[in-house]
Write a structure and sequence with these properties.
single chain, about 170 residues, alpha+beta, Arc Repressor Mutant, subunit A, Dna Ligase, domain 1, 2 domains, three-stranded mixed β-sheet, two-stranded antiparallel ribbon, 7 strands, disordered C terminus, transcription, metal-binding, DNA-binding transcription factor activity, Ferric uptake regulator, Fur family, zinc ion binding
Length: about 170
């Protein structure tokens, strides 16, 4: 993606996120707008602490409490997604396109992977069991390419299967 395309995508995503805030009844304050614009442009899925550090560069008087409250409000309004990594909460502004999160258990990196057009796991669950999903988040935990190629990639006596350690 070239720089101009990236900027247009980011500006478009931020604009859609701000519109979603308005439709949800959230006021567009300078603090909320700064956080939304930051998340629209950040594919690293930042932590609240990282959001605060970066937002404070633009608005030095913004408190951590404001950041946490804003992130929680944006989650409730469906503007952003929260990724619960067990030990840490991370945030994703990319709610406008279906995608999964690939989480590296070695380095902690989070990568997005687009899901196929029409991917509807909630529909499959409803059709098969009658379960009505209220929120869908696809997260795969494993080892990224860079870590798999590194020294930590040596074979282990155990392998992970479905989140449980099982012998080979």
């Amino acid at each position: 993606m070239n720089q101009t395309t990236h900027e247009n995508t980011t500006q478009g995503r931020a604009g859609r996120m701000i519109e979603c805030m308005r439709r949800s009844g959230l006021r567009v304050t300078p603090q909320r707008e700064a956080i939304v614009r930051l998340l629209a442009d950040d594919s690293s899925h930042p932590s609240a602490e990282s959001v605060h550090a970066r937002a404070a560069l633009e608005l030095p008087w913004m408190s951590k409490a404001t950041v946490y409250n804003t992130l929680n409000s944006l989650i409730q309004a469906g503007v952003i997604q929260e990724l619960d990594l067990g030990h840490e909460r991370r945030f994703d502004g990319r709610t406008d396109e279906p995608h999964a999160h690939l989480v590296c258990r070695v380095c902690g990196r989070i990568e997005d992977v687009d899901l196929p057009e029409g991917f509807d796991i909630a529909g499959l669950a409803d059709a098969g069991t009658g379960f009505r999903a209220e929120h869908v988040q696809v997260k795969l935990t494993g080892t990224c390419r860079a870590c798999a190629a590194g020294p930590e990639a040596s074979p282990s006596p155990c392998r992970r299967a479905g989140g449980h350690i099982q012998p080979r």
